[in-house]
Amino acid sequence: MRAFRLANRAMARQRIHSIYALARRRGEKRPLKDYDERKNRSWRPFQLAFVLLSIPSLSDPLHKDRTRPIEAYADLIWFPTGGGKTEAYLGVAAFTMFIRRLQGNLGGYDSSRGLAVIMRYTLRLLTLQQFQRATALICAMEVLRREALDRGDESPGTSPFTIGLWVGNRVTPGTTEDSHRAIKDFRDPSKWNAGSSSPAQLTSCPWCGTEVDPGKDIEVDKALLRTSIFCGNRRCEFSRGRSSDQAHPGIPAVVVDEEIYHRPPSMMIATVDKFAMMAWRCETRTLFGIATSECPRHGLLWPEASCTGNHRADKKHGLPKTKVEKISPIRPPDLIIQDEFHLISGPLGTMVGLYETAVDELCTWKLDDQEITPKTVASTATVRKAGAQVHNVFMRRVSIFPPHGLDIEDNFFSVQRSIADRPGRRYLGVCSPGSSRPAMLIRVYTAFLTAAQALFDRFGQAADPYLTMVGYFNSLRELGGMKRLAEDDVQTRSYRVQMSLVDRPGLAQRSVYNIKELTSRVSSQDIPKYLDQLEVKFNASYDSEKEAYVTRWDENEMRAIDVLLATNMLSVGVDVNRLGLMAVNGQPKGTAEYIQATSRVGRQFPGLVCSVLTWARPRDLSHYETFEHYHATFYKHVEAQSVTPFSPRAMDRGLTGTMLSILRLENDLFNPNKGASELDETDGEEIEKVIDVVSDRAWRIKGTDTKGTDTKDLAIQELKERIDEWAKEASVGGRILAYE
């Protein structure tokens, strides 16, 4: 019960401080106590029910969901976009981290530190935004832990709660030296490269909303291998003055790969493709608690670590002499969260399912002679044939939450309401035979922008959701063409609409200044800034001379975005509640993508989505002809996803990486780069274990294919061929075989 109470308090503070930080980023000056209202720290019924449902399997490692692969369930949160799925699994994550520390060292494993929760995403934009939200939770947990220590209560742990961002090195630095170089270059504008990796992944403090200045608020300590991100607000708990004496000073976030390996965070947010690095990076073993020694200065060690743990006293930095220490094994992760599960499909999903064999094995530990595996949670708003997809990726049965009721309009946790009771989204289809696509788009954009301006002139701040126009495109080529038109034709027409106001009284002259795009072409440093800009409202002040509301921006003030052009990067995870207007250029390839993309608008206010369909495209024309019926039933048109991790072609591409991930990370002999030459030195038990683990999973997932081929025999054959080839290379004299 205590772990649940702590998790509940942490989530309450996370919600209040997230709302407060958002208001601060928007320029509002209200104090924190104004946001401490019951509605801001209350659970929705399905969120609370899901947390309670997860407690048995997370509090008892011997629960069947953790010990019996055939009977284990993966919980799938299936709820409409904007319904609060993120808070549901963040609550479960908070409970997991607290209960792990309160349980103590089960089975001889150290539970006071180490990675407890892995949250995985597929897109960098989604990862970066969720990192901000999850960091607010970790801040709340860390404040609660410090308050307990001040009372003399060490049960929540003496090690700080931290969160790590484990993504590609084009986004975050791989080493502390890279981090130091990035901050040094940032302070010198002549050297700064916006496309390079940077530790500045938090644009503002998640706890109080104060802007983080990378040149002043990020400090790199190469002697301790630590990058600290401080809040610039001196009154904040995570400012330099109030947290410098902590084990992890500043905001409890780690964004450098090397530092994540030495000091694994309590929670880690990662992209799924990063796990392919397990076969290439021997140091990733520490993420799964596999370590036997530790440096008091730098953290966990591995066989090929540059640090030996033995250091002389460093008078310059005030560091004492240290000796390497032997440690107990650390408990592996207890919870794996896969957000936007519908994206784990096709070739990506197939490789994820294959590498999941290694992740499952590396997360397994023993208690009372039973093998304990992590609890798995997934979430999505659009999925079909979820049972097969969960089985192929996680080798578990699926439990959909909330369960289907007798009435599709009421499953107890969600009720379908009429538009009159609660505004939703209105879909509008536009198709103009004989007109070109650019001509249609120009007129639609002009009409929406100028109509929104007319509403703003009359009602002021209430019209803010419709002042930022979102344009959704299926390809970069079409988006690039529209960006040029938005900067030229749309801008000119919006400004000159005053001349036609006699015929169109619902329109008003609009100056379109701020046009941004959210695509793969945008650098990782600019993405968080654009997300912050999307939160900025159009401030309204009444001009008595014009008899209308106007917006005036200060010279250094962050301007709101007039037009945002985006590709499928926008379709998942962009939770900006103020958006209310979208134009979709052509019908997206999949119904799931269409639902996800259009759900970015109309979350708190009535939303309008205009689908601009081209008459020359048969598919667009077909959707236009059945527009009303399709939109009334589009959830049933969601496509089933294909995941085939143990198909012959998938094993050709990914079986070697899966095998090496297990071998390298579990065994000291094979762990170093030159460990590849040690194959002849082993007694073969490790090899046989890997073959059994992989082939057994292949059989459980696929069994026998349509041609009658036994998948287990095929997996064994493929693995033995690779091992024979490896042994042949390792036996060649006069050279040393390495992984890379």
Describe the structure.
This protein has 740 residues and is α/β, with parallel strands linked by helices. It has three domains: 2-291 and 327-401, P-loop containing nucleotide triphosphate hydrolases (Rossmann fold), CATH 3.40.50.300; 425-636, Rossmann fold, CATH 3.40.50; 648-730, no CATH class. It is 37% helix and 13% strand. It has an eight-stranded parallel β-sheet. Strand 12 (365-367) and strand 13 (370-372) form a beta hairpin. Helix 2 (45-59) packs parallel to helix 4, helix 10 (346-362) packs parallel to helix 18 (648-666) and helix 18 (648-666) packs across helix 20. The longest helix has 27 residues, at 124-150. The radius of gyration is 27 Å and the shape is globular. 46% of the residues are buried.
